Amino acid sequence: MLTDYHVHLRPDDLEAESGEFFTAENVDRYLAAAEERGIEELGVSEHVYRFREALEIWDHPFWIENARDDLDAYAGFVRTTPLRLGLEMDFVPGREDRIANLRDSQEFDYVIGSVHFVGDRAVDHEGWDAWGASGDPDTIWRRYFETLAEAARSGLFDILAHPDLVKVWGRARPLPERDPRFYYEPAIDAIAEAGVAVEVSTAGLRKPVEELYPAPAFAAMCVEAGAVFSLSSDAHVPEDIGYGYEQALDAMGRWGVREIAVFEGRERHLEPLGSGEVAARGDSSP
Length: 286
Ligand SMILES: [Zn+2]
Ligand SMILES: [Zn+2]
Hints:
Blueprint: E1 3-4, H1 18-21, H2 24-36, E2 41-47, H3 61-66, H4 71-78, E3 84-90, H5 96-103, E4 110-114, E5 117-118, E6 121-122, H6 137-153, E7 159-160, H7 180-194, E8 197-201, H8 216-224, E9 229-232, H9 245-255, E10 259-264, E11 267-272, H10 276-284
Parallel strand pairs: 1-2, 2-3, 3-4, 4-7, 7-8, 8-9
Antiparallel strand pairs: 5-6, 10-11
This protein binds zinc ion (2 copies).
One zinc ion binds at residues 88, 114, 116, 161-162.
C-alpha cells in the first residue's frame, strides 16, 4: 500500500483561492497523478489557518490574513470526491480545547498535527522568521522539539507532520552544535507515549535542506520506540503527488519500516508498505 495523505489542493499563496482549486477538475488531476504513481489512497489536508473558523484558535496576524475560507464548504466539497478528508492543524500550546472543538466539528478521516511556529515566529516562513537577530539555533531547536513533544502528547492528532521541519533551511540557517539526538529525545518520548503516527515526508527533498523528514537518526529513535509511520509528499500541486517516493521507500526499508498507517474516520490500521504497481503485477501473473 502507498498513501499520500498530506496534500494541499492549492499553493500556499493568498491568491490561490478555494474557488479556483476546490474543483472536480483539479481533484481529477491529483487522482490521475496518484494512479500513475501507484498510490492507492489519496487524501487532502488543507492548512487550518486558511479557514475563518481557525481564528477561534489563534489570532496571529499570519492567520488573520489567511483566514478566508469556510471549513464546512471544504469538508462538503471533499466528500463529493473519492479523496480522504484530512486537515493540517498547527499545534498552538494552551489552545488544546479550541483545537479539539474545531477538529471535532467535521468527520475527518485523519488530522495531521504540525509545528510551524515557536512562540509567534515561524521556523519555515521568511515573513515571520524565527531566525532573526536573537535566533540562537540551540534555543530554536530545543523549543521546536519541545513543542513537537507537546503536540504529540496532546493526543489531538493522528499524524505528526514533517517531524524535524526545523532543519528546513539546511545550511542557510545556523545549526546547533550539539548532536541532534539531544533535541529529538523529548519528542520521541512523547511519540512513544501517545502512539501518534510519524510522517515520512518527501517535502524536505524539495526544500533547501534537500533531505527527507525525518532525518535517519530521528527515524531510528522512532523505530526503537515502536512508533508507526505514515507516508506523504506534502504536495501543493498535482505534479508533486508521490514526489520522491522511491527515495522514501529506500530509506524506510533501511530503517526497517515494513508497514504504514492507513486512516478512515480517524480509525487507524497498518498495511504492508509497498508500491501498488508491484502488487498489481503480482496479481496479474498466472
Ligand atoms: Zn506543514
Ligand atoms: Zn502541508
